[in-house]
Amino acid sequence: MADTIPFDQRDGSLWYDGKLVPWKSAQTHVLTHGLHYASSVFEGERIYNGRIYKLKEHTARLFMSAETLGMKIPFTQDEINAACIAAAEVQGIKDGYIRPVVFRGSEMMAVSAQNTKIHVAIACWPWPSYFSPAEKLKGIRLEISKWRRPSAETEPVHAKAAGLYMICTLSKHVAEANGYADAMMLDYRGYVAEATGANIFFVKDGVLHTPIPDCFLNGITRQSVIAIAKGRGVAVIERHIKPEELTDFAECFLTGSAAEVTPVSEIGPYRFKPGPLTETLMTAYADEVRGVTVNA
To answer: Which residues sit opposite 14 in a β-bridge?
Structure first.
């Protein structure tokens, strides 16, 4: 399978600093600032039937994230949009994943990075569902992480920045070692926040409840699912949710470009059963990203 091939050993090409280059030649120095000081922002995008879903929105967020970290991308948003399309086309991928990344180079090796060059790379590869079809069908199991999402006063929480994912990797590794598919994270106040790479929703009496994204990403898929739900007359309540409230919810699911809409059956001691609203939104989102026109 393609996903067993190390990412630095794949064939084809990717887009790097303004041009397509051989995949295996797209290298940077070990002393790059992005590696040592997390001067890096990125996006995760999906391409379906040859169309990148919400491409412009993802690129706009990439530029916002870079600006938040004080990095000026040396290309326009239109150029990055075209580069994403080119990165998919050169690999011949109609259904897959696209990863644009922006990072500071190796001109300086210190906390200060005023004179570093800003690099941009975009790669595309085949990627099926983030979780296995069998897991999705029955709902995945989440552990509750000991790590918490930080306050907006301590980190640039609304940027899709590489450094903010360190606690996500730690949380997911522990969860997987304990037999879970992923972990749910609380925020610095103890409210429910999100999973390690996806937003979270709950269902009670036909109403959607989801945490306010005031210290984590307001995901593009999250926004899409909220719009789909409201378009079908489903009430959506964005609010702070205490962990003990999870006993009150019947259904739970995650949303994200990689996760799409994934049902959850278990979060620590709490149990859920994938139900009709989750299934409806799974189907509706799948239709939307693939450009299927359906009468609601």
So the answer is: 21
